[in-house]
Target: Bifunctional hydroxymethylpyrimidine kinase/phosphomethylpyrimidine kinase
Amino acid sequence: MIPTVLTVAGSDSGGGAGIQADLKTMLALGVHGMSVITAVTAQNSLGVQGAWELPVAAVRAQYRSVVDDIGVRAVKTGMLASAELVEAVAGLIAGTDAPAVVDPVGVSKHGDSLLAASALDSVRTKLLPVATVATPNLDEVAQLTGVRVESEGDMRRAAAAVLGHGPRWALIKGGHLAGDAVDLLTDGSEEHWLRAPRHDNRHTHGTGCTLASAIAAQLAKGDSVPEAVAAAKEYVTGAVAAGFALGGGIGPVDHGWRFRDGS
Ligand SMILES: Nc1ncnc2c1ncn2[C@@H]1O[C@H](COP(=O)(O)OP(=O)(O)O)[C@@H](O)[C@H]1O
Ligand SMILES: Cc1ncc(COP(=O)(O)OP(=O)(O)O)c(N)n1
Model:
């Protein structure tokens, strides 16, 4: 049977990040993607023009509809917007027997806030403890732990600080550093460095959502966490290399790159 994966995230009307990126990634990796929408954004290549949260009851109802009937092999979370939604989703994940990939989305590439400042504490104390893998970028590491990463050497300290909040694994994404695109995956005892060439392509909208969804898809197919992250890194690297211009600003990564080049 085709593995099922659930994304709990916000909608990006431009189709490059959020729910739309997640479902495209899941299709590309051969799993059945399903969604719980937490917020709707009016968004394009230039930034976020508006955002509206859904009521907690609507989020809970979507989650229950999917999990109680269809079932999930992995869950991925993205934009959760408010403390109330973070806490509700953390509670739902705690009651679900499936690995959870938590992308603690804080701010978009354009600098638009996607999470209320008042929700940070709930992310630390409620959401990170139920994560199988947490995938913060460097801005999110700084927001959540106070650790500033300026070089690869700082990434171990960042990972230790994230693990201190309870996820089983931390994946520190070095996408915002100069040089190779290097990420660090660790559970506190094993350490895996994932290194890929940095593609000199400004069309990188959606990298974080794509990586987290790819990890969830691979976990649903039965990979271990290190195997899932390695496969997801390969997928996102190809998607960044093939990112394309759309609108007047930053275009999306290409979720369909494997179909287009025939590999
Ligand atoms: N220009 C790039 N070339 C290759 N890989 C990249 C590039 N930018 C980001 N990545 C990779 O994309 C993934 C997402 O990282 P990042 O962009 O930091 O996340 P976010 O979208 O949450 O800010 C990471 O694996 C990172 O190393
Ligand atoms: C609705 C929504 N969710 C998440 C994001 C952030 O996506 P990310 O993959 O981190 O990509 P960038 O925004 O950094 O390009 C978003 N923009 N919208």
